[in-house]
Amino acid sequence: MKVAVVGATGLVGGEILKVLAERDFPVTELLLVASERSVGKQMEFKGKQIKVIGMQVAIAAAPQIAIFSAGGSTSTEWAPKFAEAGIVVVDNSSAWRMDPTKKLVVPEINAKELTKEDKIIANPNCSTIQMVVALNKLHEELQAKRIVVSTYQSVTGTGVKAVEQLMNERAGKEGEKAYPYPIDLNVLPHIDVFQDNGYTKEEMKMILETRKIMGDDSIRVTATAVRIPVMGGHSESVNVEFEKDFTLDEVYRILHETEGVKVVDDVKNLQYPMPKDAHGKDEVLVGRIRLDETQPRTLNMWIVADNLRKGAATNAVQIAEYLVKQGLV
Description:
Elements: E1 2-6, H1 11-22, E2 29-33, E3 42-45, E4 48-51, H2 55-60, E5 65-68, H3 72-84, E6 88-91, E7 103-104, H4 107-110, E8 120-122, H5 126-142, E9 144-153, H6 160-171, H7 201-214, E10 220-227, E11 234-242, H8 248-256, E12 261-263, H9 275-278, E13 284-291, E14 298-305, H10 309-325
Parallel strand pairs: 1-2, 1-5, 5-6, 6-8, 7-8, 9-10, 12-13
Antiparallel strand pairs: 3-4, 9-11, 11-14, 13-14
Helix pairs in contact: 1-10, 5-7, 5-10
């Protein structure tokens, strides 16, 4: 199995390499692909040094799978070229997510929709992934009607420059800025660009992607996405109204049965999910599970996951694993 990682030198690219190694993905040859300025750079994978190559060289090498994490404009330009060469692309950018001809996949939920005809497969937004993993089985049993989500998102979601800005501010050093305002000791209710309706692009991603992944356009979703000065992962406060009545015992049962979810909810002993506990892990942590006492059939929950892992790299690798297991590549 020849695999290309496009955007290998970035934060998510590095995490993809880590996840491929940890999960012992059947790589016989790994191609590390990046922009021209990184070509020739050496990177390590499983103790071996591998030289970074450019796009055309990667296409000519004919890998079976290419995992992209190089930004929307790069994916828009290059993913079709890889696909035309018969290479299956798993794309981590927003370029193809809402394209009606492309599948938007969280393996625990809808990998079974994939076929040999799917040459470009979209990896969802990080904050969407962790929410739908926690909610999908609840939705199947209780029918979600409306979701209100507020996110508390790590600076790692923006990339290396944002991490450097935070650490420079902590150290009292000047440096390049990823945000228009300080992030240390601050909170920015602004992720991605503002749209005409007053929502940010990140908020609209969560709204539209949730419906597409869960296969139900009737679910009403509203979101507020916020950047906070943490490193370990993204957190979400989620309020969800269901069609059917339920008890908290039923909710706990469903969540315990949900693949990819770990319930961390023991408030008597101050046990609840935090980004530092999610860091480096693939599970979606769920806690602070309680009834909304202002209206019936409504639940509050707190959802935390490592945005570079399940929110990006791990989900992409899981898609690739499914493709291999099902003989789709």
